[in-house]
Amino acid sequence: MPVRVKFGFSCRGWVAAACALWALPSQAVQAPPPQQPTPAALAEMSLEDLANIEVTSVSKTPEKLSDAPAAAFVITREDIRRSGATTIAEALRLAPNLQVARQNSNAYAISARGFQTNLADKLLVLIDGRSVYTPFYSGTYWDSQDVMLEDVDRIEVISGPGGALWGSNAVNGVINIITRSSKDTQGALLTGSAGSKDQRGAAAMRYGGRFAEDGAYRIYAKYFEDASTAL
Question: What is the model's pTM?
Answer without folding.
Answer: 0.67
